[in-house]
Amino acid sequence: MAKNRVRVLPLGGVGEVGRNMWVVECGDEIVILDCGVMFPDADMLGVDLVLPDMSYLREKTSKIKGILLTHGHEDHIGAVPHLIADLGFPPIFATGLTHGLLGNKLKEHRLLDKVSQVVITDSDSFTVGSFHVEPFHIAHSIPDAVGFAISTPGGMVVYLTDWKLDHTPVDGKPTNLQKISELSQRKPLVLITDCVRVESKGYTPSEATVGEAFDNIFAIAPGRIIMATFASNISRVQQAIDSAEAYGRKVLLAGRSMENNSRIALEMGFLRAEAGTLIRPHELNSYPDDQIAVVCTGSQGEPMAALNRMANRDHQHLKIKPGDTVVVSATPIPGNEVSVSRVINNLFKLGADVIYGGDARVHVSGHAAQEELKLVLALLRPEFVLPFHGDYRHMIIYRKMAVGMGIGYTNENVLIPEPGGIMEFAPGFGKQISKTPVGYIYVDGTTVGDVGNVVVRDRQMLAKDGMLIVVVGIDMSNGSLVSGPDVVSRGFVYMRQSQDLVEATKDTVRAALAQPNGDALTSVDSAYVNRKIKEVVSEFLYRETRRRPMVLPVVMEV
Amino acid sequence: MAKNRVRVLPLGGVGEVGRNMWVVECGDEIVILDCGVMFPDADMLGVDLVLPDMSYLREKTSKIKGILLTHGHEDHIGAVPHLIADLGFPPIFATGLTHGLLGNKLKEHRLLDKVSQVVITDSDSFTVGSFHVEPFHIAHSIPDAVGFAISTPGGMVVYLTDWKLDHTPVDGKPTNLQKISELSQRKPLVLITDCVRVESKGYTPSEATVGEAFDNIFAIAPGRIIMATFASNISRVQQAIDSAEAYGRKVLLAGRSMENNSRIALEMGFLRAEAGTLIRPHELNSYPDDQIAVVCTGSQGEPMAALNRMANRDHQHLKIKPGDTVVVSATPIPGNEVSVSRVINNLFKLGADVIYGGDARVHVSGHAAQEELKLVLALLRPEFVLPFHGDYRHMIIYRKMAVGMGIGYTNENVLIPEPGGIMEFAPGFGKQISKTPVGYIYVDGTTVGDVGNVVVRDRQMLAKDGMLIVVVGIDMSNGSLVSGPDVVSRGFVYMRQSQDLVEATKDTVRAALAQPNGDALTSVDSAYVNRKIKEVVSEFLYRETRRRPMVLPVVMEV
Fold this sequence. Notes:
homodimer, Rossmann fold, eight-stranded mixed beta sheet, globular, zinc ion binding (chains A, B), RNA endonuclease activity (chains A, B), rRNA processing (chains A, B), hydrolase (chains A, B), cytoplasm (chains A, B)
């Protein structure tokens, strides 16, 4: 690596949202920016989480001086407990709330005492190795979020992701435009920025507009109000509490992550409630319906979350009934549309009035729309820009937008990052110079990495047509069938109703194992018998049913 | 059943879109309205299609006088080939294009010569049994669509689904408001209507507005234009052809259903093109890029359709390249958002400019929005209304809308139909009187009904954590283990990397099959051994991995 160049590369998702993790490297020093998980795509069957691939760092752990976290969302902090040991336990730099939320995770993984959590503010600079880091406040859908300006010997990298402008944020702290303006005086070399809402023209509305919609609902709802939102959206929870207090309602916080996050935010002063506002489940019956508000998890239709349990009459304390007003204060994340829709339908079935969708104005995004992206680029004027944290198309549209502004950006200095693409920068120089392999690292259950693409492909095959086991006992001395064939199947056909098919399958196996003249095979080994059975049974079943179950022969040598 | 009552019941989906099929019964006569399929939900693993459940009709086939089809979409005609034999081959009444599209299906199922296809027009009434049927034209996203007014001895049922008003339809035939107005003079008893866009305020824009957007694109696109849309949306294809002709481009129709449907529509005069406009794949290279337009399938991100093949560089004739303009002239059907998004990203990666989404105005719905639903209700004034063909919430919102109009509708005469809910009507009387069981009937491969809920549940389990087969040979005379345990797994862990886990699993089996004193079991039967292995292995694997693969013991008696 050339001296005095800054190397920048993503180890997680760039043309997809999630698994945010960047490496900034200069000389012998590395800092890591964010360390998040991705929730699996629908075709990653049975996978719980997807992690960034840190193969690039494997031989370099001694160079890692620290991890900088921007904010407390899963896609930015969720991989820390899974990867921190392999990274050699570098210190983690983050603001108070981010550390609070991370600490909760570390505790669950019994890592709390092994990790060095350095608390930073949004205004005091600090050093990581020889890099000078200046954090600055940004407005997002979680409080205490920051961007970072990282000055390395090779130049300044600004990491500004998951932000919007919001001139009237609920916590009173807008994105620090003064700081961004000031950084522009110092010739920032590279800006790494999210671009997920570049397709949305204009500006993202302020979080405060949601509060107005809440007030309108709280003013007229005849019975209980049940509001589902992201547990991490503390400002949203705050606005629900504010509306409840204004209209004389008690508030129950429901759902594990809602309770956990709110507890941490209350303790740290990021969430405020008057004494007596927050109640416990057993107090629900002490108040009339029109004095109750519930703020709960499940806005994405997650099967086990509070809202879906209520919609399925499966919640311990809350049964939906006519007169309830349910507010879904969120937009479905792509892929969750059907689950969310199903929950809403079930709530209607139970007689609730449900308020949801764009027209209701009960949700705004935490990400910058196109005019905001333009404004910050025009203000900061970095030499190079790496848009990420969006689909691939968003990155392309961002580049087109930047070039179209006519302030000097070309396709050469708006780089479209690739997963694992190693880019190097110096004043007047910036390009991808090579690539490190990065794949999907799956977490399934408690273990990381033992489920790979082969296993997921098998699951896809099993999911489609099920499987069929053929058991035979073969006398290896003469190749004759001494027991079986027996057939066991799951997920293929309902066996009891398909006896003809089962018998015909057995006949197919018997015929295949017999010689043309009806004698047993003379020369035999179990691998051959295995392959033979698989071949004839697969072919037979496809001919009969047009399905391709996984055929698994079990050959017992007797 | 009371005499002179009309019985109405749905056998397919009502609180979900698809599987449209209604029974209208009076005296000893039945007509069936539509006979459609549903595309499976994401959790119906491996299922190809879902059919209505016609158990109610099983003992009544002699009463069935005919099937009336409104239009040629899959969710209205797709179940005919699967169910027509069980229904006793009643005659099918439909307009020319609907019959053309149905005929194509019947041919594939070798049923063409067995089915009586009666061609009707949108203006000539006819009789089915003793019922008098008056068809009338409606505007929808496919030409030659009709509604039906069915006069029975018990009263008139109006079936008006999948319609919009559209004063400027591409085929020049708007919804026949005069007929609807005229029917209102004859005291219609029941209206069955779709309600899927009741959440959308105002009016659905005319199909003609899409043509204007097309013209704007065709006027400036620098290279080829590749447009994906529904193969059945003949008017949309017509508008693409019109724009191509106006701007001097040749048109290639690509994708099997696009070719089939267009051929039928061209033959029947529903689609028109000047001589020489339509070209064959091998002619693509004879014209410069800016004289080429391709109209293709794949607007829903279907993996095997033309657009996705192009996006994956897997199409025989078409490779996407920079300079291409791709137009996605459709909205993702709920559940397809992620697939569509993936295709669009891949097209961007190949350098295409992609035009999609609401802002681009390259798609309009074929269904009525709220003001249209109100207008038709106010005009027709049926005594009872059954909203369907929407999610459950749409039915509830429709009822609220109808009641809120203040023209006499109450919760009692806007009935929310249930699947299999048997409703009876007479002037002054209308309610659900009982219920017939209806379930999901799955088509998987070539067969109907042999995949049921048990099989699908097994697939879900296999999809989540895979499976593990444990093979043992037991000497039944003394219960001793004479061969194995062997372990085979798929979709659980990658076996080669998990030898320790495999060995520990085998040890667990050995230990379970040994007596406390280390001796072999004394009393033994294979069902017991089977259950024992399943229990200990499941428990062991869950403890080790927090996963629950399906454990399948294979016990060979030796």
